Amino acid sequence: MLIRHRLFLPATSCLLGVLSLLAVLCFHFPQALTSQEIRALYTTEFARSLLMIGLVGAFVLGTAAFLRDQNRRVALTGLVAATAAVLLGGADVQVGAVEATPYSLGVDWFILSLLFSALVFIPLEQHLAPRQTPVLRAGWRTDVCYFFLSHVLIQLILIVVTVSTSAVAGAIAVPGVKDVVASMPGWAQFLLAVFVADVAQATLHRAYHRITTLWRFHAVHHSSRDLDWLAGSRVHFIETVMTRSTVLLPLLVLGFSTSTVNAYVILVGLQAVVAHANIGIRFGWLEYVLVLPRYHHWHHARHVDYWDRNYAIHLPLVDMLMGSFKLPRDGSWPEEYGVLKLETVPEGIVAQHLMPFRGTREYEDYVA
Ligand SMILES: [Zn+2]
Ligand SMILES: [Zn+2]
Asked: Do both 188 and 265 map to the same domain?
């Protein structure tokens, strides 16, 4: 069990210490490190209380780990980071000046998302995994780097996606369709948006699997040997921008309302994490209606029969229509995850980001 594991105290202290230090830096430099959109999600008082809990947790757990002689190097990292956070002002830190800025990092988004995802998913996965995997399994450092990058650069991603899609969407005018979409009730607009977005996503996803140049980017996502809530973060930066633009474009062209698009963005963020989570609950018929963990886990199976199956991320119906639906009826899970030829993807976020540009392999070299 997780709580009894020798790494639980030092690793939790280290996580809380490092996040507390980052939080104090966010208070000092809010203009550079936090973005306006994310700041709107929480109050200063909430952030201070969370910081206080983080600091106390880092000191108590780190000291306990140290006294019990449990991985003192990791515990010390937590204690040193928490001490630095206190020396820089701790929970009483003054808030730095914020002026309007066209671009800032999303360090606050990284802290909140990592903390709450870990709080929700780690206990769930420890109790409900179809096959037990350690929290700190192979490749977790790489995936934390991906998680960090995709959260800290959230505003840059949004800007690139918005600029690239608005220009194209403006040039494609389908006024008749826009009127029909605008006249639909909110819930119907949302359901249609999910379907349209998933058709666009699944079509591009199939191209990622079938076109060598695109597969070199997408292979990074499939290189995880263990799947959990964190593994889904492993996506090449160029793939993130390509996919988000491709999915947003039809939503803009068809004239879905801003609230529908925003609700869709929240859904896709949630479902992408849940689909990779190592949670083995049997959902029965619901597995045929919604993309749930077992469905997407089979997409990641290191098995030639599943190499181009289950592209949808919301609705299995989309795969049924595309002829790419495949889910074992017996409720079984894949034996193994990863690309078919393990040697084709290097380890580490830097090598993985350079890989598509160094590609000399042909399609058969990846899948034959
Ligand atoms: Zn894929
Ligand atoms: Zn995936």
From this structure: yes
